[in-house]
Amino acid sequence: MLLFVVLVSYTHTGQSAVILQYHHVSDDTPASTSISPQQFELHLRYLHEHNFNVLPLNKVVQAIKNNQPLPDKTVAITFDDAYLDILTQAKPLLDRFNFPFTLFINPGLVERGSKHYLTWQQLKQLADAGVIIANHGYNHDSLARVPQGLTEQQWLKKYASLLEQAEEMIHEKTGQSWRYFAYPYGEFSQAGLAWLSKQHFIGFGQQSGAAGTTSNLAALPRFPASQPYDKLTSLKDKLHSLPFTLTINSEASRYIYRQNELTSVTFTVNNDDFYPKLLSCYVTGLGKQTISWQSNNSFTLTFSQPLPIGRVRANCTAPSKSQSGRFYWYSHPWLILDNQGNWFPL
Length: 346
Known about the structure:
The protein is of the alpha/beta class. It has two domains: 13-241, Alpha-Beta Barrel (TIM Barrel), CATH 3.20.20.370; 250-337, Immunoglobulin-like (Sandwich), CATH 2.60.40.10. Helices cover 26% and strands 26% of the residues. Strands 2, 5, 6, 7, 8, 11 and 12 form a seven-stranded mixed sheet that branches. Strands 13, 14, 16, 17, 20 and 21 form a six-stranded mixed sheet that branches. Strands 1-15-19-18 form a four-stranded mixed sheet, with no helix packed on it. α7 links the parallel β9 (180-182) and β10.
């Protein structure tokens, strides 16, 4: 049985933000990475009507990085991949509400000139209009998946070269270089997180949760907001969420496991602003898990079944005592391989 020990502490709302992640804004693209223009407009209208502070991503990052205050209910909007519909469908809606946004792109894919992708000329126009253009890797290769014939260190060295090449191209073509990197597929390893920090990049994952001053700057959380997570009923709780601050036990800090290898997770809690009896934890493919309190500040999840092969996340939420209607939110991602160590399909 592997134990995963997490220290959770209170983070003031004025030092946190919710980062939303989208891909397509379209009725004609794959549902799993899309939100309809009509639903996207509902998201933006909700932010506007409920007085959320939609800030550029760089202001959010700088505040978190420098332990500076942010307005309560701060939100940043991001898109992964340089899809054309971001210009044709999303931007007119964002402009209507005067909301800034960030676009993470793959220069290698832009270079191929697909009719579904933005061109460098269009990206430059977006950059000149104030859109942040950031790095999604040269191609759309998973950082965590080491190609056959390479060691992990060899792959990270090669990826570093491609990442720098992508950053140079973004700077050359758009005039911007933020050194922000959104992990393709949201996949990373423990070595990958350490590697990214050495490259002096800020990383963005696809695990949910609010970002706070003690969040890992190599993997800031973002809430996926496309289908099937695009319904306003669930998005409202996410937009009001508060961050759990994590310190992970070094003996259980891996993100990649074989099936049946990870069977239990234990959390140590240092936060008296939530209701322990109302704490809920859900795991991808398994649903709500039973919480076994070991002490007043420690609980264990013993998974009801083996974790399914693929991308798996544990999401734990608990209502705040001091801020009615708001939830603390924590998510941890795992990549579960089959028993032979083979990766699941992309």
